[in-house]
Amino acid sequence: MKRALVPAAALLFAFLVGCLHDPHELRPLQSLPSTATLGSAPDPDHFVFWVFGDNRPAKKSDPPTQTIQDIAAALTTAKPALALSCGDLIEGKDPSDHSRIQKQYADILDVLRPTAVPIFNAPGNHEMDDKDDVPNPTMTQWYSELIGLPYGSFEYGNSHFVSLNTEEVPSLLAVRSPRAPLDSGDSLDPGYLSPDQLDWLNQDLAAHRAAAHVFLFMHHSVHAFKAKNELDRNSAQNLVAILARYPNVTAVFSAHEHIYYNPQAPADLADPMAGSAGSGPRYLVTGGAGAPLQSNDHGFFHYFIVTVDGARITIQLVKL
């Protein structure tokens, strides 16, 4: 049974109220519903977590893909401390059908629940947008109701983790910087971070300067394989400027493109990195968790295993 659409006036009111929130508030991000709850680290300086992105199926009627089921099975066996999803959990993009969206979330949670691993998500365009890839207030509301905060942070061991929502609904006064001319056929909505969210991020990072590492995860990329898939230019520039103030930001994970991509070494398909805190963020794209692959050398199913070893980390690329 379809749920009635939320009246436009109510959505507008909710959106305006949301725009007035205190950007300095605490936003404790919780793991996905029905997945495990994050506990304390037995050894704060030594732990492992996984990262993946873009597991949604090809069609609305399709079940969760075999690839995300394989990743879930591997999670169940390996039992890392936690896992990060960079969005597109579901095919979504249908603000006219609440029951369909609800079922898609239930289906993917049924796959992830048995892992008994705390899994955190940064929403993508398939969770938050309409069929034209425009951030939609109804989809945003349903995400909050069915999954949780669209952005926030949490701590584990010696590290701080931050999820960003790159699919915010811009205010009527927002200045956008589309990637392509109106007649190009390319997306004109490459992701957006509001000033409020960026202000919150700055305050959150300032409060966690003492963390050995900060790991960001989000959907749209600062540095994508194809420029049209990157964050809105103003959002990206403002985000990079904030991150430059905090040398403990170690890595920024994103997805959206259904590939593996290392902007620091574009031709390198080997393990992504080994590095130390304080050397600046490493940007990595991981969009290989089950969505239809892009046809290039970087298009293969995969996930990352991140090992924290005190001030050092390694990120292993696992191909499927």
CATH class: Alpha Beta
Give the proportion of residues in helices. Answer: 10-25%
Structural class: alpha/beta
Shape: globular
Number of DSSP-assigned strands: 12
Query: What is the CATH topology descriptor?
Result: Purple Acid Phosphatase, chain A, domain 2
Indicate the radius of gyration in whole angstroms. 18 Å
CATH architecture classification: 4-Layer Sandwich
The helix tally amounts to 7
Notes on the protein architecture:
- The chain has seven helices and twelve strands.
- It has a six-stranded mixed beta sheet, with no helix packed on it.
- Helix 2 links the parallel strand 1 (46-52) and strand 2.
- It has helices spanning 8-19, 66-78, 98-112, 125-128, 137-146, 195-207, 233-243, and strands at residues 46-52, 82-85, 119-121, 152-156, 159-163, 213-217, 249-254, 260-261, 273-276, 282-286, 302-309, 312-319.
- Mean pLDDT is 88; it is low at 1-7, 10-21 and 179-188.
- It is of the alpha/beta class.
- Helix 6 packs parallel to helix 7.
- It has a single domain (15-169, 187-319), classed as Purple Acid Phosphatase, chain A, domain 2, CATH 3.60.21.10.
How are the SSEs ordered, and which strands pair?
Blueprint: H1 8-19, E1 46-52, H2 66-78, E2 82-85, H3 98-112, E3 119-121, H4 125-128, H5 137-146, E4 152-156, E5 159-163, H6 195-207, E6 213-217, H7 233-243, E7 249-254, E8 260-261, E9 273-276, E10 282-286, E11 302-309, E12 312-319
Parallel strand pairs: 1-2, 2-3, 5-6, 6-7, 7-10
Antiparallel strand pairs: 1-11, 4-5, 8-10, 9-12, 11-12
